[in-house]
Amino acid sequence: MGRTKKMVKEELANRPDNTAFTQQRLPAWQPMLSAGIVIPGFVIIGLAFIGIGVALFVTSQSIQLLELDYTGVEQTSPCFKCSDPNAKNCMCELTFSTDTLFKGPVFFYYGLSNYFQNYRSYGVSKDDDQLSGNLDNFKSPSDTCAPYEYDRNNKPFVPCGAVANSLFNDTFKLYQIVNGAKKVVPLDGKGISWWTDYNIKYRNPAVTPLKNAFNGTVKPLYWSKPAYELDPSDPANNGFINQDFLVWMRRAALPDFRKLYRRITDGDYAEGLPAGNYSLQIAYNYPVLSFEGRKKVVFSNVSWMGGKNEFLGIAYLVIGSLCVVMSVVMLIVYAKFKFPEEE
Amino acid sequence: MTYFMSCVTSEEERRVRANDRDYNEKFQYASNCIMTSKYNIITFLPVNLFEQFQEVANTYFLFLLILQLIPQISSLSWFTTIVPLALVLSITAVKDATDDYFRHKSDNQVNNRQSQVLIRGLLQNEKWMNVRVGDIIKLENNQFVAADLLLLSSSEPHGLCYIETAELDGETNMKVRQSVSVTSELGDQNNLASFDGEVVCEPPNNKLDRFCGTLYWRDKKYTLTNQNMLLRGCVLRNTEACYGLVIFAGPDTKLMQNSGRTKFKRTSIDRLMNTLVLWIFGFLVCMGVILAVGNAVWEREVGSLFQSYLPWDPPVDNFLFSAFLSFWSYVIILNTVVPISLYVSVEVIRLGHSYFINWDQQMFCSQCNTAAEARTTTLNEELGQVEYIFSDKTGTLTQNIMSFNKCSINGQTYGKYTHTHTLSGRFIRLDFTPFNPLADPNFCFYDDTLLESVKVGDSHTHEFFRLLSLCHTVMSEEKSEGELVYKAQSPDEGALVTAARNFGFVFRSRTPGTITTTEIGRPVTYTLLAILDFNNIRKRMSVIVRNPEGRIRLYCKGADTVLLERLHPCNQELMNITSDHLNEYAADGLRTLALAYRDLSEDEWEAWSESHRCADKATNCREDRLAAAYEEIEQDMMLLGATAIEDKLQEGVPETIAVLSLANIKIWVLTGDKQETAVNIGYSCKMLTDNMTEVFIIRGHTVQSVRQDFRSVSLSAAWGEGGKQLQCPPPPPSNLMDNISGEFALVINGHSLAHALEADMEMEFVSTACACKAVICCRVTPLQKAQVVELIKKHKKAVTLAIGDGANDVSMIKSAHIGVGISGQEGIQAVLASDYSFSQFRFLQRLLLVHGRWSYLRMCRFLCYFFYKNFAFTMVHFWFGFFCGFSAQTVYDQYFITLYNIVYTSLPVLAMGIFDQDVPDQRSLEYPKLYEPGQLNLLFNKREFFICIAQGIYTSVVLFFVPCAVLSDATQSTGVPLADYQTFAVTTATALVIVVSVQIALDTGFWTVFNHVFVWGSLGSYFTIMFALHSQTLFKIFPNQFHFVGSAQSTLLQPVVWLTIALATAICIVPVLAFRFLKVDLKPQLSDTVRYTQLVRQKKRKPVGRKGRLGARSGSRRSGYAFAHQEGFGELITSGKNMRLSSLALATFASRHSSSWIDTLRRKKHTHTHTPPTGAETDIKIMYC
């Protein structure tokens, strides 16, 4: 008796556990691409996409957009004279008119084409420690900044690197021409950069006045003003947290890009740009013709989905329609070659 | 003595002096400490890393890592490669360390075994590892031999001792060893302590059956052979104690010399995977070249002009050099198309599948308490692709248990019901004990009329059982009164003698000249006059006995075909009836024997005895003359009846074979057994059926006859019976065999097989054999088994599986793609050599149709998805190259690149690879056709691979161009443009993770809780980790490392971004969905149908063909003679040679393992010292002469 008991015990010792896991019998959901799910699914997806597409398309159509190229390639262009690389402090003026109210808030962008901010060695050429206000990196910038690390006298560039060095430095002034007189359209440069860039990523060193932090450094090669004097009108908008600087430092993903320059939100223009003639005064400093680049300014307003974007709406419409067409095709196929249920 | 100066470094000969440690130490022989482990704590890291970096993939990633350290090239941070690499290396290292730990443990266990060593005349207990060469150690019964010993003396007479070599060569029968006569006289330890003989012998080698050396002692030379050696790993049996001199220790022992590295098996998926990885390397280089050329053009046309904002680096002063660097940079970026985690994931999945096999309760045998075991974890998916199964017969298909089932006595048949009929319990098992106290309680018989007939005293019945109790070569052992144990050479004979025993004719004991029986309670002693031994040609054996009354009678049992010819003519009527019975039995798959007797007068006996003696003494043609003498007396016999023995199949064998052949798996039986036996088993396990058009038997002895056989087979197979008449030279058989119709089976004999396996005929053999539905090879040697397997591997490119249980199957198990060992029976050699082991043949269907099928399916789905996801991920960089001046700018954040393969996408696909099921396990067994896609390699091949790659590339196109088109002039609702690099990176990465997650959701057919956790968990972890990496906290600690601060928040809050992601997902997934739906609808696979029916819960219908098949009984005439005997036993018995040993050595006599100690004894008589041939070889020789 004892022996049989022991044997039973031993038998249990080797027997694998009888659990759902070890026996591969875990409860499971086994979805199947049956017609009852797929065809209605396609119809629903298709209709949803068409709906979204229509909404996007209509919204996009309502957005106003105005683009003005001011590179000055053509001789007729008012900025032709400035496109000469030898011209210094050249100013040119573009005029344009709107027939209707350009609904506000209006955003004022500058755009560059054939400009490779996404080139790898361009993109890495900066020193994030330095830009977050680390004074050690003022003295000795990271070697990622090469070739804009030190000047000929071995003084460090601050801010160093190719990105900072190539800061876009055209400036614009917008006037409405009212009865022949120029009326300044106030441009708002506050909050045009990312909140995190302004508040976290870029920090000036905690030195007052800011200028002292820059002792022993030189301004980037192409800059006309040092970093601490970028905005003479607003002392808080200087150094690494200058809005224009921040906008430039957030490099673009594609070689044709636009960046926010100003907003038109104040005064008489809070509702938008009224119909009429406008004049844009450009301080043309930034050479792009050497690499066949283009410069432009863009005025645009936005909707809930951002700026004008026709592609998205059309793409949604196309995909939605294809889904509906597909569902019809599948229905026909299903009806013809019915799944052999009897087998 | 001339080469006394032999150097130690390369041992040319070994000199060992007994009891002289100082002398032996000069030679620095290995100690008895064995070390199978590879590492110790200090060497583990360097050695293991060195081994791992020998893998091409690992070296490649190391090379990438070095590239990344060059700043001009480095397009990615070093950690993007080192983190996955470290992960992969450490997982492998942990696995290696665990394996090695267990090896250490077993080493320690073995090294610390105790043995008794004679030191300075005293026996001392020493650990095995401290035993030295030249020590004399004492072994006791049932102890393992510690090292290779020279047997000096033993407690048994003549210095004999018995050993079991199961661990060494798998043979479970005992072998005898004898010491040199001078040392056997030494006896006890006092004499041995002063023994100072010196042994000069061969250096260590791995030949188990050979040893040559010389013992020098007291100025005399004694030759030493293998007969004097006890090898490590053997167990001492039936010997009280013995003393041995250690010759080889530890790693020098033959056991350790033999434990070479086993051949590493790779699956076809493995090989395909390696090819594909090479292709991907090629693809990677092509991409690199395209992008480098692009870079050269760009730098020349654009970059050179853009230098005002981005001057070329001083070393990069021209566009060609820049392109060169760009090539390497792109090799780094695009390296993720060669997935670093592929191999380690595949290993993990296989490990999981192996555990499922180990855990399967339905492959657990409760009788022998063994669960299935996946001994190799690298072959699982190949189990789903098997096309050929090579099976051993005895012990695999059959239980090697014979049961006396039916008999025909004087025209009356008994035993209507076979064992299977009686399982229902309607027929009561006969209880013999009241009638016969000596009965064997395990004996089953269900027909009481036979017992009645014995009780009534029917003379025919009595004579029938008397014959069974006398005419055999069984040895008996009676430990206590009435407790008989029979040691039969073959289980058939055991069954017959046991049957006689239960019916009152008890064989009690024998001496060379007598047989003592108890006949219905009355002891009778017969004088044994002669044994006319069995051999394969005679197919019968006889004994001539004189009963106490002095009457001489010859009893004969043998194959019906030979025996019925030798009957007295007056038996005609009885013969007809018996013959009918024999046919009946044969049709039931039983092994039959006919029994007859002949009365001899004293004169006849004297005359024959004289001629027999003459023949026996003849020097030339002794065998022939003996046969002639036997033939002379075995005439005019009176028929007694016939017996039918059931060779019990293992449980569920016919059903398993039926299911497996429905799954298109061809089953070949390779057996060392005789043709008749093998064919018989073929019928009883339904491999051969009477519905078959023809069963071809090839048994030619010469090349020509075998070739002729093949020709006629292919002719008659192609044109039916008429083919044989055609005299024209037959066209190449391969063409013929393609278009045959009908079911054929091929039976081929070992000697014909030897010719068929020769180079010029193997094609004919393969094409013929493969056209047949069943193939049985009988009388094959272990080597031939392996050759057949190799042949099919070579010519058919099919996955082969070999299954067997004995040492003779080892070669076949090792050479097949997959080797399966039947465990829980005698011998572990087959199991040790196997990749999978379980205890019942029927588990094979579950192993293949369920586990194998699932493994294959899972692995294929896993691989498809794995390549897809990596291409979708990586190729985005390629498209981006055209927009970023081919500057090797990555699209994604470097942390995303690091974590994508190892965190964000690894677990869902792993869960699918481990848990996925398309149909439940019962369905795979019900519909064996579901197994076919694996055999045809449909689920993952080069075509499927290209489809995956194409889908991956399509996805990458969508993932790049959709965000590109949308974001290029999209803005946030605050007017800030979305076209900045970081927003783009986050959008693309998120879209990618979502698309591949949706794709895995589509691919997963079986959503267990793990799949849910992993899929949702991966998505969750992606967002969590991204938000964490883009958080202010981390940025404040490492401002230089986390450039993406704030990107996640500002990007993912934009509706446009989500609309973009939704659009990209729809464009990627909708076509896949539509395609899959249409495919299921238009071209449904069987698994789809089964799944569908399962889903709609229709009445499940059993597949056709499974029933009708199994119940079929046939009535064709087959010779059922089966007598798994070897000759030579009769001689031994009459000579009395084995009488002394009978109580000892026969204890573990197994039928299959040839009684090679008997051979040894016989050869000793003839003073041969050659290697004893195996039983099969012996028999073949006999058949040739």
UniProtKB/TrEMBL annotation, chain B:
Record-listed E.C. numbers: 7.6.2.1
Cross-referenced SUPFAM superfamilies: Calcium ATPase, transduction domain A, Calcium ATPase, transmembrane domain M, HAD-like, Metal cation-transporting ATPase, ATP-binding domain N
InterPro entries: ATPase_P-typ_cyto_dom_N (IPR023299), ATPase_P-typ_P_site (IPR018303), ATPase_P-typ_TM_dom_sf (IPR023298), ATPase_P-typ_transduc_dom_A_sf (IPR008250), HAD-like_sf (IPR036412), HAD_sf (IPR023214), P-type_ATPase_IV (IPR006539), P-type_ATPase_N (IPR032631)
Cofactor: Mg(2+)
Gene3D superfamilies assigned: Calcium-transporting ATPase, cytoplasmic domain N, Calcium-transporting ATPase, cytoplasmic transduction domain A, HAD superfamily/HAD-like
UniProt GO cellular component terms: plasma membrane; trans-Golgi network
Residues in P-type ATPase C-terminal domain copies: 831-1084
Active site feature: D392
Stretches assigned to the P-type ATPase N-terminal domain: 16-82
Spans traversing the lipid bilayer: 60-89, 276-298, 318-344, 862-883, 895-915, 945-968, 983-1002, 1014-1035, 1055-1078
Keywords: ATP-binding, Lipid transport, Magnesium, Membrane, Metal-binding, Nucleotide-binding, Translocase, Transmembrane, Transmembrane helix, Transport
Pfam family, one: Cation_ATPase
Catalytic activity: ATP + H2O + phospholipidSide 1 = ADP + phosphate + phospholipidSide 2
Binding site for ATP: D392, K393, T394, E493, F534, K557, R591, T671, G672, D673, R779, K785, N808, D809
Residues binding Mg(2+), per UniProt: D392, T394, D805, D809
GO biological process per UniProt: Golgi organization; phospholipid translocation
Membrane protein topology class: Multi-pass membrane protein
Subcellular location: Endomembrane system; Membrane
A molecular-function term among this protein's GO annotations: magnesium ion binding
Membership in a protein family: Belongs to the cation transport ATPase (P-type) (TC 3.A.3) family. Type IV subfamily.
Protein name stated in the entry: Phospholipid-transporting ATPase
